[in-house]
Amino acid sequence: MNILTVTPNPSLDRTYEVPDLARGEVLRATGERVDPGGKGVNVSRAVAAAGHHTVAVMPLGGAPGALVAELLAGQGIDVAPVPVAGPTRSNIAVAEPDGTLTKINAPGPQLSAAESELLLDTVTEHSGRADWIACCGSLPRGLTPQWYADLVARAHAAGAKVALDTSGPSLIAALRERPDVVKPNAEELAQAVGRPLATIGDAVKAAEEVRELGAGTVLASLGADGQLLVGASGTYFASAPVALVRSNVGAGDASLAGFLAAGGEGPGALAAAVAHGAAAVQLPGSVMPTPADLDPAAVTVTDAVPLDRPLTEPAS
Q: Which GO terms of type biological process are on file (predicted)?
């Protein structure tokens, strides 16, 4: 399996574990991690941790960008960097013992028109050798919401399948180019259809509407409730128990990596997605799970979707 990832707005992520987050106080961290960040970057990290080949395409600039590339290379990931003038952003996350996470995400550099085009050209250059292209995360300043749509169109023209994990206007614009898989969470799904979601049945209906707008398959993360898969092969719901949530940073990205590495369709891939996501939330910072961290036997998959079950965290 060869998975190409695209991260238009990567980051250098620092995660601090603290006993308690007290506003206005001096906090002493009990743990610290520095990781390459960004949703597509995390997908590549999870794919590599699972033993598959991955190439990570992203704009990189300045000392933070150089460190991101160095850290990824150390994890066995091939990096296809697009040099940009502005420095790669640095993000901060503060994790509390109960799993509460406070994040500060920097805006990132503003890309020029030439840098935007070079990023698209680099993706196209590597598309032909990829089983899947995972396009993930927010767009940096300088890229319009149409950028992901252009990327999907180019990838399809090269014969590649595309999984898209973004939201808002960027998602709506890209749906017109019919991405093979989209991966919203409950809030992003509610935003896409313009109404709140209170039950799993509401999420199923919203996913069906997103398919009508152009998505081939919808893999929807419903937080602690589990995940939905709505596609041509049917509708499935899957969940797994989690003993302790340590950090949810990158858990959705690990889930997408598991889904794509398992073929990207059907209940088997959904089970792999849930196993990866459940393992990721029990690891510190944005550590990606290895096969040894997974517990596939704990995952339950069913086509008898509990439509009336209220969502633990309703989406508005």
A: carbohydrate catabolic process; small molecule metabolic process
Which sign, positive or negative, has the C-alpha torsion 186, 99, 95, 66? negative
Question: Global pTM?
Answer: 0.92
Q: For residues 130 and 151, what is the distance between their CA atoms, to the nearest angstrom?
A: 14
Given a contact cutoff of 8 angstroms between Cβ atoms, the answer to whether 224 and 309 are in contact is no
List, for residues 53-78, the tens digit of each pLDDT value: 999 999 999 999 999 999 999 999 99
CB 44 within 8 A of CB 35: no
Q: At what angle do helices 200-212 and 186-193 cross, to 10 degrees?
A: 60
Domain 2-315 homologous superfamily, CATH = Ribokinase (3.40.1190.20)
In sequence order, which residues have a C-beta less than 8 Å from that of residue 74 and are 6 or more positions away?
none
Angstrom distance (rounded) from CA 255 to CA 275: 7
Integer-rounded Cα radius of gyration of the chain: 18
Tell me if residue 35 is catalytic: no
pLDDT at 98 over 90: no
What is the rounded CA–CA span in Å between residue 4 and residue 12? 20
| Amino acid at residue number 18 | V
Give the DSSP H/E element, type plus range, for residue 36: strand 31-37
Residue 290's φ and ψ, nearest 5 degrees, are -100, 170
- Sequence ranges of the domains in the chain: 2-315
Question: Which positions ≥6 away from 121 have C-beta within 8 Å?
Answer: none
82-185-6 Cα angle (round to 5) = 10
User: Given the DSSP bridges, would you call strands 89-95 and 11-17 parallel, antiparallel or unpaired?
Assistant: parallel
The catalytic residue among 78, 202, 253, 293 is 253
CA–CA separation, 211 vs 246, rounded Å? 33
